[in-house]
Design a protein that fits this description.
195 residues; alpha/beta; 5-stranded parallel beta sheet; 53% helix
């Protein structure tokens, strides 16, 4: 699977009617920054999801072989971070509501749908995805920093501890610092030597 760019979002449309996919794709491409992928079956959609990072899955409920409900259930297990939207006709409204109640979809739209509302919902979801992505990256950076600081403290106990004078100035124990630098690997000594 490809690694997502921080600001690039991908949406996958799944419908067994190619004309519907073309119409929705045109609107989304023209009015949003999403990359658009399309599939005409649930199996094709899962295959795309296994090879591409998909942020939002939009599926018709009524499709042959694998229904949209089956697709979102499988996608929720295999790709839990992908947000899922269902497109439904009035006859399948109860099933769409059940999917929402079960936590498998975040929104549903009846067909034909209001494209302005749909684009607005995609915009809100896009902002949510990007915010969560940035939060995950910040957390990963904090974890790497903390791991590095633990390594330093394990390898050189007390190296990260400093004292302040009565005036608030940092007091450096030069003898202890020199001992740490002298026992450090050559790469660390080279960096410290340039300071």
């Amino acid at each position: 699977m490809t690694t997502p760019d921080t600001e690039t979002l991908t949406i996958l449309f799944v419908d067994d009617e190619p004309a519907v996919i073309r119409a929705i794709s045109r609107v989304v491409i023209a009015q949003t920054p999403f990359n658009v992928l399309t599939a005409t079956s649930g199996e094709e959609a899962l295959g795309l999801m296994r090879t591409s990072n998909v942020d939002v899955l939009v599926s018709d409920i009524d499709m042959p072989q694998m229904t949209g409900l089956e697709l979102v259930r499988l996608a929720s297990r295999e790709f839990p971070s992908t947000l899922r939207i269902l497109l439904t006709g009035a006859a399948t409204m109860d099933r769409a509501v059940n999917a929402i109640n079960e936590g498998e979809v975040v929104r549903f739209f009846t067909k034909p749908f209001d494209s302005d509302r749909f684009i607005g919902a995609l915009g809100e979801l896009g902002e949510r995805i990007l915010r969560l992505r940035r939060e995950r990256q910040a957390e990963a950076q904090r974890e790497r920093r903390d791991e590095f600081l633990r390594w330093i403290e394990d390898r050189y106990p007390g190296a990260l501890t400093f004292e302040r004078s009565e005036n608030g100035e940092v007091v450096i124990n030069v003898v202890r610092l020199r001992t740490y630098v002298d026992s450090a690997p050559p790469g660390v000594r080279a960096v410290v030597g340039t300071l």
